[in-house]
Amino acid sequence: MENMRSENHRGAAMEGVKLASEAAANTNRRALRDIKNILGAPHQPQAVSKRGLQEKPAAAGAKSQPGAVGHRPVTRKFAAILQQTQPANAPLAPIGSERQKRNADTAFNAPSDMECSKASDDDLDEMVSRITQLMTNELKEIDMEDTEEEEMPDIDSCDVGNSLAVVEYVDEIYSFYRRTEELSCVSPTYMAHQSDINEKMRGILIDWLIEVHYKLELLGETLFLTVNIIDRYLARENVARKKLQLVGVTAMLLACKYEEVSVPVVEDLILICDRAYSREDILDMERMIVDRLEFNMSVPTPYCFMRRFLKAAGSDKKLELLSFFLIELSLVDYKMLKFQPSMLAAAAIFTAQCTLNGCMSWNKCCELHTKYSEEQLMDCSTMMVELHQGAPRGKLTGVHRKYSTFKYGCAAKSEPAAFLLDARKA
Q1: Cα–Cα distances in Å, from 146 out to 137, 362, 372?
Q2: Where is the composition biased (Basic and acidic residues) (predicted)?
């Protein structure tokens, strides 16, 4: 009889579970799973371990039983298990009683749900702590970067009251220069297409024009625009050797019309050329140049960037003169055409700083405004050091003589920064 009762109880329990599963399937609802609220129930890993639920009811409005473990209601599954484990003639213990707790502890030899939950909580706490630490470190780095940017000096603060400095638009102006500076560049191999002139003749012409520029006391912008017009014209037009000087003086006349307040008259240029050309020759060449360049004369030159970058470097007169000495040496050398105007300006200032300080001193402010790092400038800078070393020697010494005068602070007599050459080899 006892066996029959036990089987009846077991069959009733299994039938109840089956009916519950079928009802859930018919209503398209997922079957309820064990929420592990009874001590001794098999532990299943949880995606998120919820603390503090041991003392809260399982659902809103559910009443906890006074004898339940953790003051929670007993699930239907656990009640069926208790029916299977109890004797047939034994009365069912009230839900949540101490006897039920003892039977549960006897029926399952597994670690308690609280212990497993505690282990899962520890793992989760460790993971959350690690993620929190990583996020904190990242936020600190961002804050440090923001602090560094905030601490950058405002190089335009001293010109707020100067309407000619256009402080309100200066950043946009130099952004435009950076976008359009490629228009002022020429191929560093254009001389290969010239049949009657070569790069040495170009160097002689530029060196001579620097002396002419110095004697006429023209603006710095005029010299750089003159050289740019010459290179852009020679890159597009094949010029005979006897016309090369004519191209040079005409390019200077055009640059003066764009940059100077008082433009030299054509007769002065004829005298400078020792009457090798007539007035008609200069005016005809002027028409040819502007036509070949499509009247595009206003382009960014290294001089445009020099003023801005010197301001960012907080330069004094000594650094300024040495920087211009180095960049004018670069105007004469044909190999320097491979560098963009902004890089030539930044490298000249960087090399001048190294020459005066005896070490590399390219700070964050200079890097921010020039957009070049020390590594990016090293190739151009070392070539400038080599030009500085060879400036007193050879036939093209016009720049060296100019910057050896007291008017230019004897900048050419500074000791070249030879340690940059060793740094590049290393």
Answers
A1: 14, 20, 20
A2: 1-12
Number of H helices, E strands in the chain: 17, 0
Residue 230's closest CA among 211, 213, 209?
209
Identify the three-state secondary structure at position 68.
coil
Span 52-102, pLDDT tens digits: 444 444 444 444 444 444 444 556 666 666 565 555 555 544 444 555 555
Distance between CA atoms of residues 346 and 331, nearest Å: 14
Cβ-Cβ contacts under 8 Å for 192 (sequence gap 6 or more) = none
DSSP 8-state secondary structure symbol assigned to residue 181: G
pLDDT of residue 35: 52
Domains, the chain? 2-54+62-114 (no CATH), 185-299 (1.10.472.10), 301-426 (1.10.472.10)
Question: What DSSP line would sit under 133-170, residue for residue?
Answer: HHHHHHHHHHHHHHHHHHHS--TTGGGTT-GGG-TTTH
Residue 236, burial from CB neighbour count under 10 angstroms (0-12, 13-18, 19+): middle
Structure tokens that stand for 357 in this block: 């300080």
Q: Report CA-CA distances (Å) from 404 to 223, 320, 352, 409.
A: 19, 14, 16, 7
Buried b / exposed e along 252-287 (16+ C-beta atoms within 10 A)? bbbbbeebeeebbebeebbebbeeebeeebbeebbe
This prediction's pTM: 0.65
List Cα–Cα distances, 57 to 48, 114, 118, 120, 339, in angstroms. Answer: 18, 16, 19, 21, 76
Give yes or no for residue 235 having a pLDDT over 90. Answer: yes
Could you report the per-residue pLDDT of 174-187, keeping only the tens digit for each?
A: 999 999 999 889 99
Q: What confidence score (pLDDT) does residue 74 get?
A: 56
Q: Is 196 helix (H, G, I), strand (E, B) or coil?
A: coil
Alpha-carbon torsion, ordered 330, 332, 337, 343, to 10 deg: 20
Q: Is pLDDT above 90 for 38?
A: no
Q: Are 330 and 387 in contact (CB under 8 A)?
A: yes
DSSP assignment, residue 36? -
Chain mean position to CA 235: 34
Q: How many Å from the N-terminal Cα to the C-terminal Cα in the chain?
A: 98
DSSP 20: H
Q: Which residue has the tokens 């009733």?
A: 12
Rounded CA separation 64/73 (Å): 5
